[in-house]
Amino acid sequence: MILLTRKAEFSASHYYWNDAWSEEENVRKFGKCANRNGHGHNYTLEVTVSGEIDAATGFVVDLKHLKEVLEREVVSVYDHRHLNLEVPEFKAAIPTTENIAIAVWKRLEGKISGASLHRVRVYELPDLFADYYGEL
Amino acid sequence: MKAYFGRRYTLSASHRLHSENLSEIENQAIYGKCNNPYGHGHNYIVEVVMGGQVDPETGMVSDLVELDACVRKEILDRFDHTNLNTHACFQNLVPTTENFNIVIHDLLRTAFMKAELSVVRVEETSNNSFEYPVANSFERSRGAHSRGKGSAA
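Above: the input entities. Below: the structure tokens describing the complete assembly.
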């Protein structure tokens, strides 16, 4: 068993807002992240897969395939978009770093040939990230 | 769903690796230049990973402002710009980064109760890093492997 990690980047805007709360509660809980005009980040995505090394190729997964899957399933949907307004999974879930990591996992699960998803890590800033391992 | 929230902090501190239980020659042989008599310093990076269910109301595992305040009070205010050897916790413990990592973990585990402290990772330099406890990483990877089996398209 070996782990392989591929990075990708996307830039997107978002805001934090819970419709069930008053404006005052949203501002108190989320601070400047509750500004309804939104703000943005350069996100870094790290996708780690696990698997056995193929004896014929020496690969655990074809990196070109993994890159294409990340581009198709995640980057092309999130990059230069407003996550709250343009990405369907964030109509019902606040696009926090935790929820983005979970959403990326759901987008990738079952799409990577020959390897299993091990971890999705999303950096919102170099000093702030979320990890999801597929746990309930 | 259970996710993990990670935050990185930096602190600068000095230390000297020296054990009273070893001779001068043994200390020099084991610790090398880290045993030089007047100490030296590092810019440490402390990475704190909290685990827990994502709160459906906030989309968060842990309140960032509360975590930052706790780490500031318990770790940064205590250790930043200090000599680690002078702290009570290192009077009988060599302030290697392994031991520093465990000290930080134990302080945070009892001070921050709003989410489960999953792991603390400390970088001493960009070439050296330490992680404690290790068991949590393996538990998570076991869970992911069993769920991920046969997921290939």
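Note for the figure: Chain A is about 30% helix and 30% strand.
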